[in-house]
Design goal:
The chain has 17 helices and 14 strands. It has 428 residues and is an alpha/beta fold. The protein has three domains: 147 residues, 3-Layer(aba) Sandwich (Rossmann fold); 191 residues, Rossmann fold; 29 residues, no CATH class. Strands 1-11-10-9-12-13 form a six-stranded parallel β-sheet, sandwiched between helices. Strands 6-5-4-7-8 form a five-stranded parallel β-sheet, with helices on both faces. Helix 2 packs across helix 3, helix 2 crosses helix 9 and helix 5 packs parallel to helix 7.
Length: 428
């Protein structure tokens, strides 16, 4: 883990780089090969890759209704209750996001409308390598259902015994997923991109994953399939001042490190004391956590950075554009107004990132790798298209025709002009 004191601004660009970027060419080539193979051989290729990467060939990709129905009995009542409570909060927030239709008469006789329409075939990817991320099922399927998507399919990797974790299946049932398939990694994205005998083709693919999954999603966009965003390895940036509780800061810092070895955590602070004591606090916490060895790999490319003031911390944060931004600061509300680039922001000392990951209600599928400069996290609009309509009366086209004709002729598009002119009384 790097510890830096007042780095020169010339170093900031390098300090905001993500881990493993140097392997991009190798990842691209590997994923391209998998995508092409699945496009060519379908289910057979998907099963071959499952066997190669997991050591077990699935008997079938489809998860049966009986398997899904049996999942509830394999969970504790406490976990079932927690999943249901989180689902209610997520649904409440996303229902509030549902857009209203738009109807405006821009000119007398010219009525313009916009109507939100759900995407028909949605494909969800649920990671399961390091953790069974059943919370992601809720985060994706619930807004898809609220948006009105008629076909919701989900791919998730099976465990060594060939079964899906029961919490993932129970969450799928609670959230309203229509079909579940036991496959993960780039091969799952390829299956949803092209469609196979078992896995239906998706119009849009959602879900986070490692760098191979992220690359596969980006390649899917070249094959006519939309994606939510380039969501890759998880990351957090914590801004903490001298009043921040070091234990709170450390647990938020480590919460991303346990997602996987590619994850990255950044701490920005103006406190010399926090900078000096923080590594020891991390070590004590790590000694108590079961994923210590894997988390150490993540911490190898994580950073603690001492900066001069709040303005510098916010400037660095906006340059980094974190997936998760935690403002553990005495004046967190003021800093909120300075946020330009972030996936989701956690305001004040009592707002851990894990609250948003599970149950506060906001979505946890967020842009990583600096894509927060241009992308939003998943929301109800992610599952919709907005179709515009216009209806003109004879009065409306008569009023609008001179504008249309003048602009069309100026662009040398005479047929456009003619289409307006023939509808008016001056056409000869």
């Amino acid at each position: 883990m790097e510890i830096l004191r007042y780095p020169d601004r010339k170093e900031w660009k390098a300090l905001t780089s993500r881990a493993l970027a140097s392997q991009a060419a190798q990842v691209t080539a590997t994923v391209r090969s998998i995508m092409d193979d699945v496009a060519s051989r379908g289910d057979e290729a998907v099963m071959d890759y499952e066997e190669r990467f997991t050591g077990k060939r699935p008997a079938e990709l489809v998860v049966t209704a009986e398997e899904i129905d049996c999942a509830a009995s394999k969970l504790t009542a406490e976990l079932r209750t927690a999943i249901e409570a989180a689902a209610r909060n997520i649904a409440a927030f996303h229902r509030a996001e549902v857009p209203e239709p738009v109807e405006v008469e821009t000119t007398p006789g010219v009525l313009c409308m916009q109507r939100p329409v759900a995407i028909e075939h949605v494909g969800l990817y649920i990671p399961g390598g390091n953790s069974p991320l059943f919370s992601t099922v809720l985060m994706l399927a619930i807004p898809a259902k609220i948006a009105g998507c008629p076909h919701i399919a989900m791919c998730t990797p099976a465990g060594p015994d060939g079964t899906i974790h029961p919490a993932i299946l129970y969450a799928a049932k609670v959230a309203g997923v229509d079909h579940v398939y036991r496959t993960g990694g780039a091969q799952a994205i390829a299956a949803m991109t092209y469609g196979t005998d078992s896995v239906p083709r998706a119009d849009k693919i959602f879900g986070p994953g490692n760098r191979y999954v992220m690359e596969a999603k980006q390649q899917a966009t070249l094959c006519g399939c939309a994606i939510d965003m380039p969501a890759g390895p998880s990351e957090v940036l914590v801004i903490a001042d001298s009043e921040a509780n070091p234990l709170f800061v450390a647990t938020d810092f480590l919460s991303q490190a346990e997602h996987g070895p590619d994850s990255q955590s950044i701490l920005l602070t103006t406190s010399e004391k926090l900078l000096d004591t923080f590594p020891d606090i991390l070590d004590k916490l790590l000694s108590r956590l079961p994923r210590r060895d894997m988390m150490m790999h993540s911490l190898e490319h994580s950073r603690i950075i001492l900066l001069h003031d709040d303005a510098e911390m916010m400037e660095f944060s906006n340059l980094y554009a974190p997936e998760h931004l935690i403002l553990n600061h005495r004046d967190a509300g003021r800093l909120c107004g300075m946020v330009r680039n972030a996936g989701s922001v956690f305001v004040g000392p009592w707002s851990p990132e894990s609250a948003g990951d599970y149950a506060s209600g906001t979505n946890h599928t967020l842009p990583t790798s600096g894509y927060a400069r241009a992308y939003s996290g998943v929301n109800i609009d992610s599952f919709m298209r907005k179709i515009t309509f216009q209806r003109l009366t004879p009065e409306g086209i008569a009023s609008l025709a001179p504008t249309v004709i003048a602009m069309a002729e100026a662009e040398s598009l005479d047929a456009h002009a003619l289409a307006a002119r023939v509808r008016t009384s001056d056409y000869k």
